[in-house]
């Protein structure tokens, strides 16, 4: 059976798209080599709030790296706020890469952000964790060990994530 050149071209493109999807989907960094190892500790202050990761030991920490200009970050913010309300035994920490302090402060007020969040304009925490794209979120257990990494916006009130966090809390 002879196959036309258009069919071959389509199949070639289809193969290329599938191969690209596999490469990108399989190595997005959601299973980094530092899972199961101590989370890199940091102290970050933006003049109004301070995050000292070592002082959060004993609690499960949801470390969210974000920015006000990042649409997926803004999209997931309500569910992060709801998660903190739903599970007061854990700590949701936000580290924003915003450059402009005034824009950052207005955003926090407008969206009634009650999470412990600091602005890290120099992206020191992102560099420490190897984060290139935001939002990116790390789950750190009570002993300060990295347990999971999420890339992109999540529904933090979804049953799978909530169940996972409850199990981590013990």
Round the mean pLDDT to the nearest integer and report it: 86
State the low-pLDDT regions, or none.
Answer: 11-31
Strand and helix order: HEEEHEHEHEEH
- Cross-sheet strand order for the largest sheet: 5-4-3-6-7
Q: Structural class from helices and strands?
A: alpha/beta
The CATH superfamily of the largest domain turns out to be: Glutaredoxin
Main beta sheet strand tally, sense and closure: 5 strands, mixed
What is the terminal-to-terminal distance? 62 Å
Shape: globular
- The level of helicity is 25-40%
CATH topology descriptor of the largest domain: Glutaredoxin
Number of strands: 7
Radius of gyration: 19 Å
Number of discrete domains: 2
Determine the strand fraction and express it as a percent band: 15-25%
Q: CATH class of the largest domain, please?
A: Alpha Beta
Q: Total number of helical segments?
A: 5
Q: Can you name the CATH architecture of the largest domain?
A: 3-Layer(aba) Sandwich
Protein model, in words:
With 170 residues, this protein is an alpha/beta fold. It has two domains: 1-30; 32-169, Glutaredoxin, CATH 3.40.30.10. The protein has five helices and seven strands, in the order αβββαβαβαββα. The chain has a five-stranded mixed sheet with strand order 5-4-3-6-7, with helices on one face. The chain has a two-stranded antiparallel ribbon with strand order 1-2. It is globular, with a radius of gyration of 19 Å. The N and C termini lie far apart (62 Å).
